[in-house]
Amino acid sequence: MVCNDDAVSGVPAGLPVLLDVADRLVVVVGGGTVATRRARMFADAGAQVRIVAPELSLELLERAESTPALFDLRVRRYSPGDLDGAWLVVTATDDAGVNAEVATAAEARQCFCVRADVASAGSARIPAMHMSGELIISVNAGDDPRRAAELRNLIASALELGSLATRPIRAATTGSVALVGGGPGDPELITVRGRRLLFEADVVVTDRLAPRALLDALSPEVEIIDCGKSAHRHNLTQDEINSVIVQRALAGRRVVRLKGGDPFVFGRGGEEVAACVAAGVAVQVVPGITSATAAPAAAGIPVTHRGVAADFAVVSGHRDPGRAEAGWNWPELAVGPATLVLLMGLDTLDGIAEELIRHGRPAHTPAAAIHRATLPEQRVVRASLGELAAAVRRAGLAAPTVVVIGEVVALGDR
Prior knowledge:
The protein is α/β, with parallel strands linked by helices. It has helices spanning about 35-45, 60-65, 95-110, 145-160, 190-200, 240-250, 270-280, 290-300, 330-335, 350-360, 390-395, 410-414; strands spanning about 25-30, 50, 70-75, 90, 110-115, 130, 135-140, 175-180, 205, 225, 255-260, 280-285, 310-315, 340-345, 365-370, 380-385, 400-405. The longest helix is centred in the middle third of the chain and has 17 residues, at about 145-160. It is elongated.
């Protein structure tokens, strides 16, 4: 998208083009803030960047030292020979005379030149840009950079928040899988990348605790496969889920595996990645905010606090606490981490509390159960460790509920 207010009688003052600068020489004259920003942009695009200036910013020196193959530093005043071989020139010094000299020399070489000080005096412009996946948003507002940046930011925000949702129309060249952590519940707590990949998907395989409100904004053409696990319904096994995401990707489709929390925190994400790798499917993992830290935070409970708790442990509570083969290390859990966070532990809470107390965790230790954290129906029940299970039953809490045990719970009461 290009907006240019310099158009007169329908004729634009300039034409937007995308330049492939990879492995091509771009010369930047200047070593200050603007020159640094431009040099960074071109280096990130794979260009060979020649920088000419008597003094260079610390960032330019560090970038040149870390990636010497991309940078040619000439720490001196500009001379016309510095433009030899250039495909594009940017002049960003604080000397208008030097900038004019560079622009004239570039013109003589039939090389486009961007002038940072007087845009209209150059033969090219660098618009305000935003990249979102395959999308490149480019805005020029008649050489009014603040206006261009404001419009760019509005478009970028709309894309990231989903109010300007868009998905690729052409088919993917190859299929792919993205394991996306949807966060603890509130749809606004998914990451920007996760939201973008979701809106670009051809297939979404979703869990029960994923932020399902986001699915309502998807195109009707998107295939949605519900594999959420709950009682009294047919559930896909993990092997079946692996097969679904792999087969859809092998068919050339963009697959998003949408999960609650983080894919690698009790989400079996590692198994799904392994299945994709074994099948030769391109796969990426987009981390999510885990309820292990988000639920306590939503209840005003820090899992660590200076002088109170220097560490915390996250434990899966779905295993039978009374069975030795379940793998519980009660002596370590009882007297080790200052804070314990239990996920999926509502049905086993009585046994967990009993074992923790028996192995040394005081019965009066503050504890809390947080139901549907970050959502409007969030509820918090607080009690001592010894009394929490009974308090939860009286309150009628059900899954999903996160349990926090430790002195940090008392901080939330303040």
